[in-house]
Amino acid sequence: MAKRDESSELLRELVAHLRQNRTQLREEWVGRISETRLLTAMTKEEIFAEATSVYDSYVEALETETFEALQAYARNLSERIIPRGVETHEVVGIVLLLRDVLARSLFAKYQTDFKKLNRILDAYEPAANRIANTVAVGFVQERERVIRQQQEAIRELSTPVLQVRERLLILPIIGVIDPQRARQLTEQLLRGIRTNRAKVVVIDITGVAAMDVTVANHLVQTVEASRLLGATVIVTGLSPEIAQTLVTIGVDLGKMNTVGDLQGGIEQAERLLGYKVMALAEPN
Amino acid sequence: MEVPILKQGQVLIATFQAALSDADLNQLRSALVQQVVRFRSRGVIVDVTAMDVMDSFASRTLREIAHMIRLRGAETVIVGIQPEVAFAMVQLGLTLEGVATALDLEEGLAYLNQKFKTMK
After folding, report:
1. Is B5-119 assigned to CATH 3.10.350.10?
2. pLDDT tens digit string along B8-27?
3. Same structural domain, A198 and A64
4. Tell me, what's the ipTM?
């Protein structure tokens, strides 16, 4: 308990010192930032403005030993600077620079009293490390959130379920299918079958170069689930590699209805639905 | 809870109200198999729209119903399987092989009428 009290007393002293020398230390920090060519995407004025708020939040976190405000600030800062292309190493770099600048100023202040310096650093270092950690984690979390959002958007875009005729859907799949995308495809397809009251679905996988065993199995399950909803699935455009995968996992070919290309698939679907398409005249 | 069986022309319609116990399913099976001959029905529709879970017993019973009714000279269609239920069933390997399925009651009736026409 006594140790805790002493440590917080030292932190108070430390905070007082950092407040007193705010202008000078901040200058030095900003100087170091441009020296090491961090935050090149931002102008000097912007760096100075951000540095001021970071400095104040930093000192406040040291004083109160609570990190919520700093965390919120770090998230807010990340939100603003991520779209401008600021990298993780830059954010971590500037916080570590600030930590070093402040530590140096402590050395300078207590160089005569080595014992006191030791105790001050004992109090300062864990808090400073936690701050660095908090800011770095906040930045990375924000980045991950942005990435997740983008992935979500790409996924939404990449799985259209289109109705080409009454009761006939096509599902063109392009690109790599990972298990998560496969699951989403299935969900959208099954929902699409229900809302469009589809009888036949053509899944075109011309744009898929290869798929692993898990995804191939998933495709087979999607075909079976569609049948349970009363829809027939025709798979078109299987590449030789995918055909190989399907044979390797031993798909029951009686359940899979496959046609070479998308045109053939749509023609077969039209036959199943009783459509007859004919040319009215010779094309000229 | 007993499943009501309705007669609509040549077709018997059994609509599941909610999740059924195994005993209810057995009861439904014997009732359907008896009535299909008593009413000289040519088709049976089992509507499972209300079921949000389909376990292996229910799935096996549905398959048995379909096969027994075929042996009694009529056709069976299972209708109204929900998309989530369908995928969960497939993952459990319950694919109702050899049993006709349709989106809903309307589709089921259309399927049976088509079947009756071709059988004539």
Report:
1. no
2. 999 999 998 777 888 999 99
3. no
4. 0.82
